[in-house]
Hints:
It is globular, with a radius of gyration of 18 Å. The two termini are 18 Å apart. The chain has a single domain, classed as 3-Layer(aba) Sandwich (Rossmann fold). Helix content is 51%, strand content 12%. The protein is an alpha/beta fold. Helix 2 (38-46) crosses helix 5.
Amino acid sequence: MSPGKGHPPVIGLLGGIAAGKTAVAAMLAQLGATVVSADDIGHAVLDRPAIRARIVARWGADVLGEDGRVDRGQLARKAFADPQELLALEALMHPPILDAMRQQIAQARRSPAVRAVVVDAPLLVEAGLDRDCDVLVFVDCPREVRLARVAARGWEAGELDRREGRQQALDVKRQRARFILDAHAPFETTSQQVQQLWQEILAP
């Protein structure tokens, strides 16, 4: 996709799990971008009564927290424990998330007030959302750093590799990107890289 006349560019973020894509998206938002986040939309989809009911019917009421909302950690532990269960969860969640993301992208691109749109989605390429983007940016971060980050979240050993094993190889994503950002650099360095990226993408 290429930006039409008068339309803001759509920037797709690529990178491994816990690489810092959301942090880069936040930096771009501070510069004036509108962020379309799969994570935020996923929260909203889980709150839909019909979706919640189907989740409870398949995985049990113990996936609900004390507030009655779906506990994402508990649901993930059940789904990722069995490939068939994960496929069932993806079949339930991915279509409404993708629909909502594409609606938000289209709405943002029509707004004269939006300077750029950033798409933050873990499965951006796998879901075909890369075709909705004008430029792809790879957020780079060493594997050992990402492992430490997910361990701090309470992930078990091997969980990162298991999840990334279902995604396109990072080397392939890196090669597809027009820009590469170092998300393990000091904050000021990463911020400078993001600002340079912003200027190049929005250059007339």
